[in-house]
Amino acid sequence: MFPKIELHVHLEGTVRADTLRQIAKRNDYPLPDDLESLYRFRDFEHFIEIWILTTNALQTQDDFRQMVVDYAEEAAGHGAVYLEGIFSPAERVRRGVAWETIFDGVCDGVQEARERHGVEIRLTPDIPRGFSLDEARATVEWSARYRDRGVVGVGLGGLEAQFPPEPYEDVFAYAKSLGLGSVPHAGEVAGPASVRGALENLQADRLRHGIRAVEDGGLVRELAGRGIVLDVCPLSNLRTGAVASLHEHPLPQLLAAGVRCSISTDDPAMFDTDLSRDYEAAAELGLTPRAAYEAGVVGALCDEETREMLRRTGDAWDWDR
Hints:
By secondary structure, the protein is an alpha/beta fold. It has helices at about 15-25, 35-40, 45-55, 60-75, 90-95, 100-115, 135-145, 170-175, 190-200, 215-225, 235-240, 250-255, 270, 275-285, 290-300, 305-315, and strands at about 5-10, 80-85, 120-125, 125-130, 155, 180, 185, 205-210, 230, 260-265. Helix 8 links the parallel strand 5 and strand 6. The longest helix has 19 residues, at about 100-115. It is globular, with a radius of gyration of 18 Å. It starts with a strand and ends in a 5-residue tail after the last helix.
């Protein structure tokens, strides 16, 4: 099984339905029994509605530790050697969970995942769009406190079409000043203006999704020229209706223009996918496993020692077999 890098996975969205039901039960959090039926999304807004309903079942330090370790085991089974995990602490804080509980649990999970499953994990917490600038700033400050435990950047996620990136410009400048990378969602359900805002106002080091950049040829050339890596999640885009069919996915156009694209699952438990299936979908669209891996190496926010380890892992694999 060839090695894989995943740069875009929401840890809350990795918890499989049976496990989520167990967690909800022990936290006395009401969830519908038939979670699987909830995961048939009408559109992106419906996905966000179900996301909030289900992920608020996660409440304790052990819940957050478990979600990381469980996913590391699953991803390792698909060949993952490096992950950048996303989580949305401010959503949980609004429900009364302490910042320390969330960050300690997730970071405990990162350490345990490395020890038990041999997967290197870095963390890139998300600021939810529409949350206050105070909440966004708090997310950045708590992220910076945990830099020595694997937090390497911050993102911006949620309702992209309703909340453009520009109001968060100062928050991301603050994150950069604290040594954190910028990895916002952009160009998933909103067009090129959202991508430009992420690049120019949020100083994006990498873009989560970015696929609607294809609507602006000049923007695509800029992405290619700057070597910006896009975290492409083919089956997520299909499930949320961001693309009407896999055949219509813009990945081939991006590749033809020289844009570097990595491959990820986004929310595998909610989108009925896994890392192998998304890599297979990408291969159908013309992205080779080796090219996806190499884009992952370039796009990762890790330290140079880890990047060199990833490079050696890729070089040691016989990609033609």
